[in-house]
Amino acid sequence: MTTPLVEARGLTKSFGSFEAVRGIDVEVHPGEAFGFLGANGAGKSSTMRMVSCTSPRTGGELRVLGMDPDRDGPRIRARIGVVPQLDNLDTELTVRQNLEVYGRYFGLSRAHVRAKAVELLEFAQLAERADDEVEPLSGGMKRRLTIARSLVNDPDLLLLDEPTTGLDPQARHLLWDRLFRLKQSGVTLIITTHYMDEAEQLCDRLVVMDGGRIVAEGSPGELIRRYSTREVLELRFPPGEQDPEPVRDLAERVEVLPDRLLLYTADGDAALAAAHARGVRPVSSLVRRSTLEDVFLRLTGRTLVD
């Protein structure tokens, strides 16, 4: 087993009497894409800020790139890239200048950052906009530029906090492609997200956080096998007319929603045929594979927590 790039034991973060991160254990190994999956307020961003050495830990142990953030923050920050939740580009500079000026903060030569900027503009598919101002760019372009800027120092570790929030589907998929290429090139990624499909697409391994704690850990496939079934049968009814009793024994678990029943089963088609044989007549039906969203909702519940 390789030495972890990030290792946390009993890590906590408090803001006054509020404990945002409640004693988590995490290991991130070189070359993997590791995810923190959770709803807003679950503790993901607080954890990322501790790893990125921008917020001190309250308690527990934390090592990043083999160093202690409390003592070695500047050395760690020189070797990581950070993509914050909100873009913080310099709108008074051009696209190219955002990369070149940022590279100078790391003590890189002008010649090096000029060459690196050309490489990163191609990677982010922004070469044709290199000399444009930043403000008119689309949200997806700004996000790609923010990611490109985070790579200017060739980081050993790239931290991405909610990288695709607010983007349309086309921009999200293009960004996923860029991140997948980074992963294939050996860059270690840590991603926070509340998008289940994003976690399934990008993460080799992830933890599910809820209320500042880790409630599950594994690969997307492992988590689905552990906490859900192979398939889910959705039976949709007029509101108030869904009765779970006739189908309760057809699945490992039946969930009742306002307009439908969810039957978690190994064989959705067989469960649907059995339901029809018992006279159950939904307005519509759908057999689909289980997803991380099913796992997440089972672990954290469907109730909105502020």
From TrEMBL:
<dbReference type="GO" id="GO:0016887">
    <property type="term" value="F:ATP hydrolysis activity"/>
</dbReference>
<protein>
    <submittedName>
        <fullName>ABC transporter</fullName>
    </submittedName>
</protein>
<keyword id="KW-0046">Antibiotic resistance</keyword>
<dbReference type="InterPro" id="IPR003593">
    <property type="entry name" value="AAA+_ATPase"/>
</dbReference>
<dbReference type="InterPro" id="IPR027417">
    <property type="entry name" value="P-loop_NTPase"/>
</dbReference>
<keyword id="KW-1278">Translocase</keyword>
<keyword id="KW-0813">Transport</keyword>
<dbReference type="GO" id="GO:0046677">
    <property type="term" value="P:response to antibiotic"/>
</dbReference>
<dbReference type="Pfam" id="PF00005">
    <property type="entry name" value="ABC_tran"/>
</dbReference>
<dbReference type="InterPro" id="IPR017871">
    <property type="entry name" value="ABC_transporter-like_CS"/>
</dbReference>
<dbReference type="InterPro" id="IPR050763">
    <property type="entry name" value="ABC_transporter_ATP-binding"/>
</dbReference>
<keyword id="KW-1003">Cell membrane</keyword>
<dbReference type="GO" id="GO:0005886">
    <property type="term" value="C:plasma membrane"/>
</dbReference>
<feature type="domain" description="ABC transporter">
    <location>
        <begin position="6"/>
        <end position="236"/>
    </location>
</feature>
<dbReference type="InterPro" id="IPR003439">
    <property type="entry name" value="ABC_transporter-like_ATP-bd"/>
</dbReference>
<comment type="similarity">
    <text>Belongs to the ABC transporter superfamily.</text>
</comment>
<keyword id="KW-0547">Nucleotide-binding</keyword>
<keyword id="KW-0472">Membrane</keyword>
<keyword id="KW-0067">ATP-binding</keyword>
<dbReference type="GO" id="GO:0005524">
    <property type="term" value="F:ATP binding"/>
</dbReference>
